[in-house]
Specification:
It is built from 23 helices and 21 strands. The longest helix has 32 residues.
């Protein structure tokens, strides 16, 4: 089916706001083809729609065993740092709090087959990524997702990323209350919110139902909420401990307590106030210092809190802050099958091992959560379809992705676990070891990421293969450790909070570049990422399995009683730990042994020449430039409508384009300008036209008159071709005039400095 056919078929099935967003992106895509949008502006608009440039490695991808040739309709690819703007790339799909329905899973599977390589990749932010998607296909892909209630909007770029949450929220035995409804409400409130469009970097949010477990990993997030509950006069009162300023990367920070025991009613307005403070005071020029953690550290938590309090007091009231609260119980899941006890009847082969590692007993008697372990976070489109059907059969729609790159099925009657397991085995998803040392987390690394230094997926696949062979022979204390691998220092694999973490780097040996991994030990996964690990040195990539063996063996032999791994690592200290791996740092000459000079799953000589410029944050583009890009896109829609003879739509779109440009200009002075056309035009007239600030040196106020006149007159009773054509042309001239005004104002400001 063609893109046009899909658009017509899905008309009316998409939320109107998402449908409009996709239309705008499609228009911007065409403008980019015509060279009418700057590369830097289009890159940011692309990223904010979840479309990410990726690395090519001759069309190969590591599947945990070896690098294999990919099948996808993209032509020949080359290994190198340059990626053309219209080349196949990655599309990131937001899955708020990890909640995905069987229907949504099936649609994503279809898209993976039709536009990608047939693989769905679950990320450490509970997203789903499709790789090697041609940019021409992205609008159709977005429409098909929107039709089932999913979006890619702001999945990348300088905005609010996917909001994560505990995958067992609502069924957890230790949670204060189910955080799902609150995570969903904040996601919907912030999606496309004007106050979140002027950040210097990305912004990550997490929810946790309790303070002690891993849950949402709140302490490593820009903003996080930990549930609390108290009973006052016999009435349950819900609240959150709110944290701000956490983050990983090259400089990891623990989040700081912003508010303790804060009412749930204040969750949305507080986050809006934080967004405003961050947008106003956060770093914009130096991307390395642009995350909110640096602002909180610079100001101190007390001053940051004062600024947030001040911003909260002046926020215009928004009914959405609390409108969702009466309906929080609509997220309460109900089982589709009656509870049945696990009676000890004969079970399929391998069931007992799977039961021991992959099953969590819910707080609701008779029910369990089953974890579907996904090696490297991948599942095929066929497996996704099978999993959707399994989900329908056993749990209805109670499916969630996890930050450990797995999927959980909730509300499984305990007596149905053998049958569920048999179904999972039948589609190749019955592996045991979830949440154990075998369940290695890894970012995409050099497979597809431009910033990847070493093969994180290759190493993770090798570690998983070796550990799986002996997992149930390992000491119990070792079996429960977590290993996480990042391809570079940016910590997409969350190595900082792993018991044993690794991140990619390199060393020069005899004139050759050798892939290495920095070893990080003793991170605390529990307590919502309670502490970060200790770096102890870089080891050649090919010797990392020996590092794991050396560290785990030493821990088993040397721990005092039931001493935790974190306490053991702290007791040994960096010097002794460094000595433990010192012999593993040596690299033989290339003539003696060439293997260390290659990376996992890649027989070619290792090089860093194929790295490119990363798109983790995107270039910082001014808010007015982004909004004028939107106005340009609406004006383009007007032109297309005019050419198609749809005069009514051409008139409407031309007027909307001028309104968008005027609003962008007004917003430079008043962030809370309403979207109401009367308010926009009045503010534009008062601030820029009546003052003659907007006047051109020669044309005076001529470029503003079409907006003012069209607004005053309203839509014509009958549309004439020539009148409409003139309005469409005037709309573009008005946008150009706003651009010119912006340039004049910037020049005037520079002259004053």
């Amino acid at each position: 089916m063609s893109a046009t056919e899909w658009r017509e078929r899905l008309q009316g099935r998409m939320p109107p706001d998402l449908a409009e967003e996709i239309d705008l992106f499609e228009a911007q895509l065409e403008l980019r083809r015509q060279g009418r949008i700057e590369d830097r502006v289009f890159a940011e608009t692309r990223l904010r729609r979840g479309v990410y440039g990726q690395r090519y490695d001759n069309g190969q991808r590591h599947d945990g065993i070896a690098s294999r040739r990919l099948r996808f309709p993209a032509g020949e690819l080359t290994k190198g740092p340059e990626t053309l703007w219209d080349a196949p790339g990655m599309v990131r799909i937001k899955i708020p709090y990890g909640g995905v329905s069987p229907e949504q899973l099936e649609v994503i599977a279809e898209l993976a087959e039709e536009y990608s390589d047939g693989i769905l990749h679950i990320t450490t932010r509970q997203d789903v990524q499709l790789h090697f998607v041609h940019i021409d296909d992205t609008p159709t892909l977005m429409r098909r997702l929107a039709a089932v209630g999913i979006t890619t909007r702001e999945a990348c770029g300088n905005g609010v990323r996917n909001i994560t949450g505990c995958p067992i929220a609502g069924v957890c035995r230790t949670e204060a209350f189910d955080v799902t409804a609150y995570a969903d409400a904040l996601f919907r409130f912030l999606l496309g919110h004007p106050d979140c469009q002027d950040f210097g970097r990305k912004f990550k949010i997490a929810f946790s139902g309790c303070a002690d477990e891993a849950c949402g990993l709140v302490m490593m997030h820009d903003f996080g909420a930990v549930a609390r509950v108290a009973t006052v006069d016999g009435v349950e009162r819900r609240s959150f401990d709110l944290y701000v300023g956490g983050g990983l990367g090259t400089t990891p920070y623990q989040a700081k307590l912003l508010y303790e025991d804060h009412p749930v009613e204040e969750l949305l307005p507080v986050m809006q106030a934080i967004a405003r403070v961050y947008a106003r005071l956060g770093e914009k020029r130096n991307r390395n210092r642009a995350r909110i953690k640096f602002l909180v550290s610079k100001l101190g938590i007390d001053e940051f809190r004062r600024l947030v309090d001040e911003e909260r007091r002046v926020l215009p009231h928004d009914p959405r802050w609390t409108s969702y609260l009466p309906d929080v119980e609509r997220f309460d899941e109900r089982p589709v099958r009656e509870p049945v006890p696990l009676n000890g009847a004969p079970a399929p082969e391998g069931f007992e091992r799977w039961l021991a590692t992959n099953v969590y007993r819910q707080r609701q008697p008779g029910y369990a959560v089953a974890t579907v372990a996904l090696p490297l976070g991948d599942l095929s489109s066929a497996q996704a379809r099978g999993l959707a059907e399994i989900g329908r059969r056993w749990v209805g729609g109670a499916i969630r992705t996890t930050v450990e790159q797995n999927i959980v099925l909730r509300w499984v009657p305990e007596g149905d676990l053998p049958g569920l397991y048999a179904d999972l085995v039948a589609i190749g998803l019955g592996a045991p070891g979830a949440g154990t040392i075998v369940d290695v987390t890894a970012c995409p690394g050099t497979d597809t990421c431009k910033l990847g230094i070493a093969s994180s997926r290759g190493l993770a696949g090798e570690l998983r293969r070796r550990l799986a062979a002996t997992a149930f022979e390992l000491d119990e204390a070792v079996r429960g450790l977590r290993i996480k691998v990042s391809g570079c220092f940016n910590s997409c694999g969350q190595h900082h909070v792993a018991d044993i973490g690794f991140f990619g780097n390199s060393r020069k040996i005899d004139g050759y570049t050798v892939p290495h991994f920095q070893v990080v030990l003793g991170g605390r996964w529990r307590e919502n990422a309670g502490s970060y690990g200790l770096p102890i040195g870089a080891v050649p990539s090919k010797r990392i399995p020996e590092v794991v063996e050396a560290i785990t063996s030493r821990y088993v032999a040397g721990r005092a009683g039931d001493e935790s791994f974190q306490d053991y690592i702290a007791r040994l200290g960096k010097k002794e730990l460094g000595a433990l791996i010192a012999d593993l740092k040596t690299v033989p000459s290339r003539e003696e042994d060439p293997s260390p000079y290659t990376d996992w799953g890649d027989a070619r000589e290792f090089t860093m020449g194929d790295m490119g410029v990363g798109e983790c944050a995107g270039e910082v583009i001014s808010r007015i430039d982004l909004e004028l890009s939107t106005a340009e896109s609406i004006a383009f829609e007007a032109q297309v409508a005019l050419e198609d003879g749809d005069l009514a739509r051409a008139d409407d779109r031309a007027y909307a384009a001028m309104l968008a440009a005027a609003q962008a200009l007004v917003r430079t002075e008043w962030a809370d300008v309403p979207s109401d056309p009367d308010a926009i035009v009045e503010e534009f007239r008062t601030r820029f036209y009546d003052t003659e600030r907007f006047f051109d040196r020669f044309a005076k106020g001529r470029f503003a008159r079409p907006l003012l006149d069209r607004h005053a007159a309203g839509p014509p009773a009958a549309h004439e071709a020539e009148t409409t054509r003139v309005l469409v042309e005037e709309a573009q001239l008005f946008i150009d005039a706003v651009h010119a005004f912006e340039i004049r104002e910037a020049g005037a400001q520079s002259a004053l400095v």
